[in-house]
Amino acid sequence: MKKIIGLVVLLAAAGVAYSFMKKDKAAADAYQVGDVVDDFALKNIDGETLSMASYEDAKGFVLVFTCNTCPYSQMYEQRLIDMDQKHSANGWQVIAINPNDPDVRPGDSFEAMQARAKEYGYTFPYLFDDGQEVYPKWGASRTPHVFLVEKTAKGNVLQYIGAIDDSARDASKVTVNYVDDAISALEAGNAPEVTFTKAIGCSIKTK
């Protein structure tokens, strides 16, 4: 009996280890700061297919993997609208992407995305990662999870990964806005001082 229990424990441990190995490999294969990133083509809430190439005059992109249902994503909704209004006029396009599987989280369906964007007055495109083929390439693991991309002569270069700012729960207590600071540095011709922070939010929902 002890041998059977020991074998079960060993197999369970091996399964956990294999799961972590797969996650580590996925993270290692994902884009890193400094990488030239590939474009994507995803459906916007208006039914139009959009990509980074759709914005020919953009200086860069604030890609935010987010969703309808995560409380952290909801906390950042107004901040994303404010960010878009602040930066899009200067060539930095905010693009929100919903990576969640609606079969797992029905509240993140395409129809629910359309309804939420209309209700809260989104000023930025809100794309659906149907089939969940895009977010793993970026290594997104949370909602929200930000990836700042600069358009350069050699291609679209990833310059920052992580959180929007340092106070997810209370916008009034923000002391550092990582995205704003990174954009300001790039505008001045410098590399961002902070290029990676830990994203705070809900796990991406997948089967």
How would you sum up this structure, described in words?
This protein is an alpha+beta fold and 207 residues long. It folds into two domains: 30 residues; 171 residues, Glutaredoxin (3-Layer(aba) Sandwich). Helices cover 33% and strands 20% of the residues. It is built from six helices and nine strands, in the order αβββααβαβαβββαβ. The strands form two sheets. Strands 2-1-5-4-3-7-8 form a seven-stranded mixed beta sheet, covered by helices on one side. Strand 7 and strand 8 form a beta hairpin. The longest helix has 28 residues. It is globular, with a radius of gyration of 19 Å. The chain starts with a helix and ends with a strand. 33% of the residues are buried.
Topology:
Blueprint: H1 2-29, E1 42-44, E2 49-50, E3 60-65, H2 71-75, H3 77-87, E4 92-98, H4 110-120, E5 126-128, H5 135-138, E6 142-143, E7 145-152, E8 155-162, H6 178-187, E9 202-203
Parallel strand pairs: 3-4, 4-5
Antiparallel strand pairs: 1-2, 1-5, 3-7, 6-9, 7-8
